[in-house]
Structures are given as structure tokens and as C-alpha cells.
Amino acid sequence: MGVLVFLNGQFLPEAQAVVPVNDRGFLLGDGLFETTRVIHGKPFRFAQHLERLARGAEFLKIKSPFKPRELEKFAARLIAENKMPDAILRLTLTRGPGGRGYTPDGKSKPTIVMTLHPAPPLENPAGWNLITSSFRIPATDPLSPFKTTSKILHVMARAEAGERGADEALLLNTNGEVAETAGGNLFWVRGKTICTGPAAGGGLPGVTRAVVLEICTALGLETSQRAIKPEALRNSAGLFVTQSALGIVPVAAFDGTPVTPSPLVDQIARAYREMLVQF
Predict the structure, then answer these.
(1) Do residues 102 and 140 both lie within one domain?
(2) CATH number at residue 106
(3) Of residues 241 and 123, more confidently modeled
């Protein structure tokens, strides 16, 4: 039968799980999504992902056809039926099919999809080569707290990184400050302080970002959320990226300059892996 997909309350083979060509998620990027790591058959920090999805849906005025508790049950069944206890789960919610044009007609029936994908190993990933992208994020975007499906900026930034032989791209906001990477949040080490950009800087405040801040508190490490220009990152004692799929990824080079490995990054990465293993 192959991999099963959850689509609007049904579990279907992937080839049969289709959405209409007039779905506004397909036509306009009119929707939201969440991605989380599945460990031992359970989606890690799923409640936080669902809470962000709910806030985004309320902001976009998309009424989810299912409550969070129902989505948790559907996710558990999808994981069990696919026999994929270690995977990446993606949940997508769109406004659903609609007529031509930007204006929502208020009559669309939302589309909701969950899919599973192979997960990378839990071992610490190799250090990334990070470059600063030429693309910019609005510094005061009211959509930045939500993971919308309108990700063309991030797609182009990642493509730009690939063209320049890099693994990931750093996106600045329109004030020239560090916002996020194409697929995650950036942290840097300043002395013994673990720093990241402020939530109001235009980047998405990621769930893994929040977990890392929790870990730092548990380890007794000082944290700081501050605006910074990319030039100042060169004086940091370590850089790393956080994202739900890969967890914590150290940065080995930034704009062609090697980044010195930090024992604090290793300490945080170990704590994160232990948290997953014990989940």
C-alpha cells in the first residue's frame, strides 16, 4: 500500500491523497504548517506546535476542522499505521478551495494534511557552511510569529546558498539585523552567554529555539535575546542553528570564515539529544 497520508479526516495512500487545483494553499500560499520530530512514536513538543498553529489560524481567520486533541489522535494513528516511530511529521492547514482572486469568500472548507517523512539520525550533524543571503525579511511583519506556507523568500535564500556552495542561508531583516536562517533560528555565543535574535526581529520564534532557551536555563547558562548586525557575529565564540528536523546544527564557517567550535554548543547539543532520547 505504501505510505499513508492523513487528508481531511481520512487515511489514504499517498498517491490518492490529492487536493483541488483551486485550493488557496496551492494558488496563494494561503495557509500554515508545522514540522516536528517524531521520537519513539510521539511527536516532540507537539502541543507547542499545535498552539502556534491555532494562533496562526485565528490570525488568518482559518477555522481548523479539528481540535488539537483530535489532531494528536490522528497523528498517533498515522505514525502507528505507517510503522514510522522515528520520523518527521508535517501538518499543513490551508484555507481550502476558493474562487479566483485574493479575497477570501468566507465559504472555503479548510484543507488539513499530515504526512510522515524519514528522519535524519540523532547524532550531531556536521557543521554547516552559512552565508548571508541577499534576501531580506520585513522587520515588523505581523505574520512573523506564524509559520505560513508563503515561504518563497526562504526558498530563494536556500537556493542562493546552494549556488554559493553553502548549506544554509542567513536572512537579515530590513533593518540589516540578524532575523533567522532559511530553515531555522540562529544562536551565537558571546563569552559565556547564549544569544539569539529577539522574537520581534522578523524571524519565526521556533519551537526548538524555545527548547534551547529552556535547556540553557537548566544548565545555568545565561541567555540574551538581542538585535545584532551580521558583522558582529564574526566576534562570536560559536554559532549554531536550531530547527525541528535536525535539532541543533553547529556552524563551521560563516561567509567564508571558519567558526571556532564552542564547548558550550556541544554541551547544549548533548542535552538536547538526551531530551529526545528520554522523550
Answers:
(1) no
(2) 3.30.470.10
(3) 241
User: Domain boundary residue among 73, 90, 118?
Assistant: 118
136 and 245 assigned to the same domain:
yes
- Dist CA 236 CA 218 (whole Å): 22
Q: What is the pLDDT of residues 33-63, one digit of tens each?
A: 999 999 999 999 999 999 999 999 999 999 9
Q: How many CA atoms lie within 13 A of 99 on its CB side?
A: 5
Burial tier of 268 (Cβ tally within 10 Å: 0-12, 13-18, 19+): buried
According to DSSP, the residues that pair with 190 across neighbouring strands are: 193
The total of structural domains in the chain comes to 2
Residues 6+ apart with CB under 8 A from 256: 131
Between CA 210 and CA 216 the distance in angstroms is 10
Mean pLDDT of the chain: 95
Domain that holds residue 33: 4-118
Instruction: Supply the pLDDT for residue 125.
Output: 79
Give the tens place of pLDDT for each residue, 17-33.
Answer: 999 999 999 999 999 99
User: Averaged over 235-264, what is the pLDDT?
Assistant: 94
